Amino acid sequence: MVRPEPGARQRSPLWWVVPLVLAVLLALGAWVAYGSGWWVVREVRVQVDAPQSTAPWAEEVASAQEVQRASGLRSGDRVVDLPRERAQRSVEELPGVDSAEVGRGLTGTVRITVHLEEAVARTSSGGDQVVLDADGREIARLSGDGGEDAAALPEVVPAPGVPAGERAEALARSLPTLHLLSGETRDQVREYRVAPEGLSTVLHDSYLVRWGHVTDAADLATREKAVRALLAEQPPAPGATLDATAAGSVVVTE
How much is the pLDDT for 90? Predict the structure, then answer.
């Protein structure tokens, strides 16, 4: 009979139990994730976060059905295989959507949170009112009585001579500047004109102010101050053009 050496460690007769338990747990986890109906998407919930300017059209811009369709997520999808990043990118491609988040819960609920763009202007197109974001992109297209909610937004028109093929560029170049205009300046505006060169505004006495393409708030505030000072201290003849496209100066053409 062979006796163990004194002080030698003896292997427990149950040494195989731990690996077996781990293997069973792994198999059970794989079955729950892939082979059972326990861990699947049971519900897709959509929450829309809309700025005040866009809130009246939140349902048209990002309805729950449209958001879920764009995400590609469906009830019955395996939670473990959810393409959350792809779904997020797809939702963010919807017109009027600024950003989105896709999260999942332990109960099989997937939550999609959508943040809408801020509406900054409107324009007319084929009898409809088109609501635009700060980059000139369409947020919503309203017809009939639906256009009444857009009345509070500044209406922009193409500057004289801007061809139809350049209007998208005109909006993209002008609306960032309009978005930054102060309330004091807006109160004096009778008309907003867009062109590839940037924004122009028509003020009282038919003054035409050319702002150009300005995306820095401090820079634009300085130009606004210079225009107001000139109109207050040395008002030009009615109908004059004030060119404020160059920082630090206002050139008057009468």
Answer: 95
The candidate with the shortest Cα–Cα distance to 140, out of 157, 123, 160, is 123
Q: Which amino acid is at 176?
A: P
Q: How remote is the C-alpha of 248 from its chain's centroid? A: 33
H or E element in which residue 125 lies? strand 121-125
Helices 64-71 + 84-92 axis angle, to 10: 130
Q: How far is CA 154 from CA 83, 105, 151, 163, in A?
A: 40, 42, 8, 21
- 251-253 vs 241-243, strand pairing mode: antiparallel
**Maximum Cα interatomic distance, the chain, rounded to a whole number of Å:** 122
The Cβ of residue 15 has, within 10 Å, a number of other Cβ atoms equal to 8
Q: Which alpha helices (H) appear in 93-194, and where do they start and end?
A: 167-180, 183-186
Residue ranges of domains in the chain, CATH in brackets: 43-116 (3.10.20.310), 155-253 (no CATH)
For residue range 168-181, what is the model confidence (pLDDT) as tens digits?
999 999 999 999 99
Q: What region, left, alpha or beta, does residue 17 occupy, with left being phi > 0 and alpha being psi -120 to 50 degrees?
A: alpha
CA–CA gap between residue 108 and residue 41 (Å, rounded):
5
